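Bench log, entry 3. Co-assembly request; chain sequences pasted below exactly as received.
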Amino acid sequence: MMLSQSVLDAYAVSAGSAFQFLKTTTVKERAVFMQAVADQIEALGPELLDAAHRETALPLPRLTGEKARTVGQWRAYADAVAKGLYVEARIDTAHKEKAKNDIRKYSIGLGPVLVFGAGNFPFAFSTAGGDTASAIGAGCPVLVKAHPGHPETSRIMAAAITAVVEASGWPPGVFSHIDGDEVAGTGERTGAYLTAHPQVKAVGFTGSYQGGKALLDIAGRREEPIPVFAEMGSINPVFVFPQALEQGAEALAKEYIASLTLGTGQFCTNPGMVIGVKSAALDRFKQTLRTGIRDILPSVMLNEHIYTNFEKRKTLLSEQPEIHIWAESAIPATGGQGRARVVETTAASFLTNPILGEEVFGPFGILIEAGSWDEVAAVAAQLKGQLTVTLVATAADMDAYKMIIERVKDKAGRLLFNGMPTGVEVVYAMQHGGPFPASTDARFTSVGPDAVKRFVRPVAFQNWPEAYLPEELKDENGLQILRIVNGQLTMEDISSGVCI
Amino acid sequence: MMLSQSVLDAYAVSAGSAFQFLKTTTVKERAVFMQAVADQIEALGPELLDAAHRETALPLPRLTGEKARTVGQWRAYADAVAKGLYVEARIDTAHKEKAKNDIRKYSIGLGPVLVFGAGNFPFAFSTAGGDTASAIGAGCPVLVKAHPGHPETSRIMAAAITAVVEASGWPPGVFSHIDGDEVAGTGERTGAYLTAHPQVKAVGFTGSYQGGKALLDIAGRREEPIPVFAEMGSINPVFVFPQALEQGAEALAKEYIASLTLGTGQFCTNPGMVIGVKSAALDRFKQTLRTGIRDILPSVMLNEHIYTNFEKRKTLLSEQPEIHIWAESAIPATGGQGRARVVETTAASFLTNPILGEEVFGPFGILIEAGSWDEVAAVAAQLKGQLTVTLVATAADMDAYKMIIERVKDKAGRLLFNGMPTGVEVVYAMQHGGPFPASTDARFTSVGPDAVKRFVRPVAFQNWPEAYLPEELKDENGLQILRIVNGQLTMEDISSGVCI
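Structure output for the full assembly:
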């Protein structure tokens, strides 16, 4: 669908004007709004699940879980916002020994945020997903560029948010749903056009490297560069260490296959790579992998584009001369169904052919057999930034391979000790983001309440009269938020003075 | 001075290897190191002040104050680092109702940080300045590109830090002093070369727009883009409102001149612009400005380059056809001494000639007389991002011009109610940074302990064995830092369990 430039400009201007309103809301008011969005989504009937199932081919149980997760995200972020964690209030009162002036700082939204929904999470990382919740929590209006893979799902979610905007009496520009891919008459993509729009002050994106990098470049070429947080996926290496492998090669291989093929491998935390050193135990692991993968039921991928791309990339990697063996699901697949495959190569090959380190989005894994731990260290050093790195290890392995473990810390946002990386919990301690190219800025996360931080900026008020300060910075702390007052974290009312 | 590529590469590699060490230090160990640097600088004798005075022409009392400020910065940042404020520890223990896994997150350094010293603060924002202290506090090795305006000062400061590195038994790559502007045989600048170096993971810069923007562009073109925090100055507009002006136009004009000419106007928070509406009181303000500026003693600027640039920019702005009057210091100046000047124009002119809104680094101010408050609002809307905006106002003015005040909030990092913006206190509540082009990323500050945040990234550990967790995340909280445990901020030892 095409949209005219003037329609897009109107959305952007409306968001800019809504920002003037949002700036004046308190953390509590935004938290109430966010809880109302959670209620609204929770109350959505089967039409939501049906539309998503029809548009993404994701099974209903998975979608039911994702809906609950989405509701949970709005509630968890709302709680964190209400506590004042992301306004980061700091008060330094004037006193003889230290500050000369009364200075108080808190964070406001950056301005309108452009959100790109992800195709693989139609609820949790799309129209009403984590980026939208983070931006609203930060005090930013949101312009959602609807994902073309699930337009009806996106419209239902957009309507849920719009209903809360209306019921709250908030200006309509707080949330806009941009349902169209191209700017009429220009051939330009709506997403690119809006990323370059002066009213837009930040971008949240989940998707491919190509997509995220293109937005980052557009944002950097603006007269006023703006922050882009793009989560661009990764291959999520799994390092298997000798003692752990010795204790259960077959069980580990089965656990790996289950994670690799979960949801037809369509997760950004899909473990697309295993690295180990040649041994009898690794042979058993490989054997179980080769036979186990044959039994994996092919399933329909998110859309034609994802499926075609999966087949193309899978074939490209498999056809590299360094791939000496591969195994795949033996169960016949019909059109659009991804068949899981694992391929094997050596560390020496991996180190010389960069194609072998590229992500294949879908149920595809590469096993890298190293001849020595030095080779494993070289593979670790060559790895690009990752969302996750998993260590399959025992305590003895951790002691023996300390240096390798220290080095992989530099490569990822989340480090798992055993287990598998699929499953990204929405908790404070979650880090979903990592060194480039896993994300565009390793300093932030797109999952967990801390995701709000991406969209705020601090503003300091110097000698500002109490009456004109935002609620968050007034002496009495009526909102009961956490603040740092003269260096001490406190929730105290300081209207009768501060102990220094 | 020229440096060879191999020397620069060696510095970068040494920093990269020191990062592996720094990553393993605790917040307490880094805080101890930082306090030792503070001690070392404090103990420096007159040779430091003499060198700086000779190289920058800054008066000794000012340098004495700046030295104390620099020591204070190291101590304040060390305190904040020791409290764990910037590791932002979050622990979510596995429990039936909420998290499925035990996930713990804290922040580590980004890696080696390249710091560019500023010419106007040879101590506080240069070799041993705020960026270096922030980076070390974050756990990042530092490569300082010495400012060519004060090489000897820079060497003395570098030696002080190096002495602490040695005394602590830390690897030498923790701190490197790059004293040379050009890469031998290439014509390339050392700063540009190192910004593009794969070992460098972030940049801290204080200086001109041209300099900061060039680094931002280099960093964005890297295969792995890295964050650049550049503080690039601004014109720091002062809005004068009617009732405040009525109550003391003459006193305000004098206060303004004092701030404008302090330190020969060589502050990034220098108030280079005043905006008011035509009135008898504004006429009195202007009259005092014109006569007051005549008595300002010219003083030697930081260096020949700064002086020449000041004269050139001052003349360019004064010669714009829209400048109908200007006044300057009537006291004869000798070579290298900047003579303070103020020029006057109308809001209509300001809105049409963008040159009038450009920064002139030095004692130069532009007064903009608006015909109406609508014109003031238009000027406010057209302003680029600023470090500060000052409102000279009474409570009645704040009520009457609420809309304008709301709009200027979007333009600055620090908002002053009366007073003048020069003087940037090193406190938690300080915000020094603002929307582009005041800085490259409005989400961060380069003054106050929060400056550390620029150089850290979170890493999450999932189901990690207690013994292998960093001290900051171990159950017992032996470092006694603030942590969010299952959503609650606490300093508790959780080794005997957590209440949910």
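The longest strand of chain A covers residues 103-109. Chain A touches chain B through 75 residues (CB under 8 Å).
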